[in-house]
Amino acid sequence: MTDIEFRVDLSDKLGYAVRLARKYALAGQPQLVVAADEPMLDALDAAMWSGGAAEFLPHCRADAPEEVLSRSPVVLADAVDGGTPHAVLLNLGSTVPAGFERFERLIELVGVADEDRAAGRERWRHYKHRGYALRHQSAFGGRA
Hints:
The protein is an alpha/beta fold. The chain has helices at 13-26, 38-49, 66-69, 114-129; strands at residues 3-10, 32-35, 60-61, 74-77, 88-91, 105-111, 134-138. It contains four helices and seven strands, in the order βαβαβαβββαβ. The longest helix is centred in the C-terminal third of the chain and has 16 residues, at 114-129. The mean pLDDT is 89.
């Protein structure tokens, strides 16, 4: 069963996601798939290119060729219901990502905006109703 963790009270979800992805990649963790809508994926993609060569975070989109996907520590996806399973899914979206149960771990990021909190509560109820054990971590300031 997928291990699900909510990280809440994030004042900067995008920055937190980039820092978390960088930590995973530098630690040699299993591939991280980031689920979000296209505007968030575009912003995330741009953020992962910023900061110069020392700060660049290798990544690709989910529709990249297989040889690129297999070498990328971070994959950006607007849908995760197809393809092969990955170890960790990071959800920046407002809905439950289809196919999340194929992942060993799911990290849900929830910001401070009222609509983001409400969507996070809905996702929490969805997982809880289906019997998942949930963990909660308050970020207070959003540092990964």
